[in-house]
Amino acid sequence: MDTVTLIIIAAILVLAGLVKGVTAMGLPTLGMGLLSLLMAPSDAAAILIAPTIVTNVVQFVTGPRLWPVLRRFWLMGLMVFAGTLAGGLWFEGLDSHLAPAILGGTLLLYGLMGLSQVNFRTPPALEPYLSPIMGVASGLLTGTTGVTVMPVAPYLQSLHLEREDLVQAMGFAFSLGTFGLAAALSTKGAPLTEGSVALGTLAALIPAFAGMELGRRVRQKISQKAFRTCFFAGLALLGANTLLRAVI
Predict the structure, then answer these.
(1) What is the rounded distance in angstroms from the CA atom of residue 82 to the CA atom of residue 79?
(2) Contact, 132 vs 80, CB < 8 A?
(3) CA torsion 83→87→89→91, rounded to 10°?
(4) Which residues 6+ apart lie within 8 Å of 120 measured at CB?
(5) Is the pLDDT of residue 192 over 60?
(6) Exposure pattern of 20-51 as b/e (b: 16+ CB <10 Å)?
(7) What crossing angle do the helices spanning 205-219 and 41-61 adopt, rounded to 10°?
(8) pLDDT tens across 90-135, in order?
(9) CA distance linking residue 14 with residue 221, whole number of Å
């Protein structure tokens, strides 16, 4: 890999970390979308494994309501993990020729939903039944695209949780999805603990955390609404481009 490519990858990780620092999500979503323009989705996912796991675990365990969130969403998280393994191992996962198109479609849909600000509401009586279903569906998409976002993020938002509960629940679901993805990737090709693969994903922590710190500072100075609009618009455009390239 040449120097210019390494610089571009580092810049993408800083940008993805910045988005994570401002919005509490988006690092793997934006990272996968941009890195997949340079490399295969499986290679992009391998680079993002360490920063995604570390940032999401920190997001989950450092919140004020860890145990209540865990008691409420443990089954959903388990289903995210199981679905990711199924998507990554049994349905060809990121090696599937459909992976770029599915990734592009997922980014496009999520971006459009964010821009439309659709306000779904899940009745409390349906939560015990929908949570595991949303977990499995999100896991299958994670195993195929490397991104844990659809439909678990809109689903959690539809529960109208308190802000801290929502942030922790997303961190929990995203963490389980990434652990499942790491397990799936480790059984196919070079394990993530070997040589250059491990070095690459660990090195990715540096620009990702630099971007997160920058995002934390930016968050204090700009309108959250304006930033989220730019973020979702960018995701929609990136998804449309990825989908178009895959179809062509």
Answers:
(1) 5
(2) no
(3) 140
(4) 154, 157, 158
(5) no
(6) bbbbbbbbbbbbbbbbbeeeebbbbbbbbbbb
(7) 50
(8) 766 666 777 778 878 888 888 888 888 777 889 999 999 999 999 9
(9) 18
Domain edges within the chain:
3-247
Q: pLDDT per residue over 196-210, tens digit each?
A: 555 666 788 889 889
User: How many Å apart are CA 223 and CA 220, to the nearest integer?
Assistant: 8
- Choose among 71, 203, 79: nearest CA to 141: 79
Q: What is the pLDDT of residues 40-95, one digit of tens each?
A: 877 888 888 888 888 888 888 887 889 999 999 999 999 999 999 998 887 666 66
Measured CA to CA in angstroms, residue 179 lies from 18, 45, 48, 56, 72 at distances of 22, 12, 12, 11, 20
Distance (Å, whole) CA 234 – CA 143: 23
The structure tokens 């995210």 sit at 80
Q: Is there a contact between 172 and 60 (Cβ–Cβ < 8 Å)? A: yes
User: Distance from CA of residue 187 to its chain's centroid?
Assistant: 21
